[in-house]
TrEMBL record:
Signal peptide: 1-19
Gene3D superfamilies documented for this protein: alpha/beta hydrolase
Pfam families attached to this UniProt entry: Peptidase_S9
Stored InterPro entries: AB_hydrolase_fold (IPR029058), FrsA_esterase (IPR050261), Peptidase_S9_cat (IPR001375)
Signal among keywords: yes
The Peptidase S9 prolyl oligopeptidase catalytic domain, residue ranges: 132-176
GO molecular function, one term: hydrolase activity
PANTHER family registered for this protein in UniProt: DIENELACTONE HYDROLASE DOMAIN-CONTAINING PROTEIN-RELATED, POLYKETIDE TRANSFERASE AF380
Protein's name according to its UniProt entry: Alpha/beta fold hydrolase
Keyword entries, A-Z: Hydrolase, Signal
Lineage: Bacteria, Pseudomonadati, Pseudomonadota, Gammaproteobacteria, Alteromonadales
Species of the source: Agarivorans aestuarii
Length: 278
């Protein structure tokens, strides 16, 4: 989902909308494997990089889904206040658009079917865009390869957790904002394909520290379900800092990242300081 960016973050970083840096649009090459031949496509990404040669730590921010027709596929997700904030702390931010989203080429095939096969194929399909992103990043001399934090919102949050579990050698930590693949209304019979099951599986033998940030009154996941995500992750051996915010009775908890930075920004800063990144 996509929401307006909270004014509190803009106030904190003391930047006017008129003067705000909207980042640099870059293209990331990707090879799509077909039955008969491979196809070369380009993914769109927005990069916020501090001035200088680096090397700089990096936060990757993975966007959420379109919802069932709620957000246009062509919309480029650009949390510019977050980019400006990180740059002030000498940290780069990259927001890659997965296939078929924004100006990225290819098809958007992250379906909303509740079947186990749909969930697994959707995550695998999304992960292929991240594979291309990581191949691109590994060639960048401005990047401190030892200090990459992977993060994301909604589907991008869960994707970050699952992807980092498969490639822990590439990342320093994981930050999950309101992460989940399907909402509570989606009854998945196989526990490993549920949000709780996916988090539990990702925690096993995982050496990375994780920060989970959620807001109460999320229209997609109940408070008890969110708490079960954190519990399952910890029970499976994951290293977790779980922060669960009460935003107000009329607040949309799923909008935590975009609309309520005054709740989570200090906790995020303290977490980054523990990683010696701020």
């Amino acid at each position: 989902m996509m929401f307006r960016l909270t004014l509190s973050l803009l106030t904190l970083i003391s930047v006017s909308a008129q003067a705000l840096d909207r980042g640099e649009t870059i293209s990331i090459p990707m090879t799509e494997q077909g039955l008969l031949w491979d196809k070369q496509i380009l993914l769109e990404a927005t990069l916020y990089k501090p001035a200088g040669d680096g090397p700089f730590p990096l936060v990757i921010f993975n966007h959420g889904s379109t919802g069932p027709g709620i957000i246009a596929n062509t919309l480029t997700i650009n949390p510019w206040g977050f980019g400006t904030y990180l740059n002030k702390h000498n940290i780069a931010l990259l927001i890659p658009m997965r296939r078929g989203r924004g100006a990225s080429q290819g098809s958007y095939k992250e379906s909303y079917n509740c079947s186990v096969n749909s969930v697994e194929s959707g995550i695998n399909y999304a992960s292929q865009s991240l594979d291309a992103t990581m191949q691109y990043l590994q060639q960048q001399t401005w990047l401190d390869q030892e200090n990459i934090v992977i993060s994301g919102h909604s589907r991008g949050g869960l994707l970050s957790v699952v992807y980092a579990a498969k490639h822990p050698q590439w990342f320093k930590s994981v930050v999950n904002f309101s992460g989940g693949w399907m909402g509570d209304q989606c009854q998945i019979n196989t526990p490993l394909a549920s949000n709780q099951g996916l988090f539990s599986k990702a925690a096993k033998n995982n050496p990375l520290p994780h920060l989970f940030m959620y807001g109460r009154n999320d229209p997609y996941y109940s408070d008890s379900e969110i708490e079960s995500y954190a519990q399952a992750f910890e029970d499976a051996g994951g290293q977790l800092d779980f922060q669960f915010y009460s935003l107000g009775s009329s607040a949309n908890g799923h909008a935590l990242f975009y609309e309520y930075s005054d709740f989570w920004l200090e906790g995020f800063k303290q977490y980054m300081q523990q990683l010696n990144l701020m």
